[in-house]
Design a protein that fits this description.
Blueprint lengths: L6 H12 L3 E5 L5 E5 L13 H8 L1 E6 L6 H22 L5 E7 L2 E8 L18 E6 L1
Antiparallel strand pairs: 1-2, 3-5, 4-5, 4-6
Length: about 140
């Protein structure tokens, strides 16, 4: 019997593929940001918090309505996603260094930012973020 892809499954797959379309934009101070093409930002002025800017622009819900009964499968998927996405960013931008996060709660969210000098990471890893699990990958 052939499995039929549900509309929600298809939308999740499209969303997942969209995160592999990234662009760079430069501010007035010549800082180069890597952002998701889908965020719609093509130009910016000066940015006070470069880490937060990228982390907010690079925030995508991959799976919605996560059921607690699937949490082991979700964590396994999330670790693979982190590794794959981190390696993608490293390959595409070998001179830049990134932190990629997957947040698991009632949804699975992917976000990333560069490791900017003199700026803290977006999340303090190994500290609770509400009722979420935060996984991360440095590249």
């Amino acid at each position: 019997m052939c499995n039929v892809m549900r509309k929600n499954d298809l939308q999740s797959l499209i969303t997942l593929l969209d995160v592999f379309e990234v662009i760079t934009i430069t501010d007035d101070d010549e800082n180069e940001y890597v952002v998701l093409k889908s965020c719609g930002v093509i130009s910016i002025d000066n940015v006070d918090d470069k880490t937060a800017f990228e982390a907010v622009m690079n925030h995508t819900h991959i799976i919605d309505d996560v059921k607690k009964s699937n949490i082991n499968d979700i964590e396994e998927f999330s670790n693979k996603l982190l590794n794959t996405y981190g390696n993608f960013l490293h390959y595409k931008y070998p001179s830049k260094h990134f932190v990629v996060y997957v947040t698991i709660d009632d949804s699975v969210t992917l976000r990333f930012h560069q490791k900017w000098s003199n700026e803290p990471w977006y999340y303090i890893v190994n500290e609770p973020v509400y009722d979420s699990t935060v996984l991360y990958f440095e590249c």
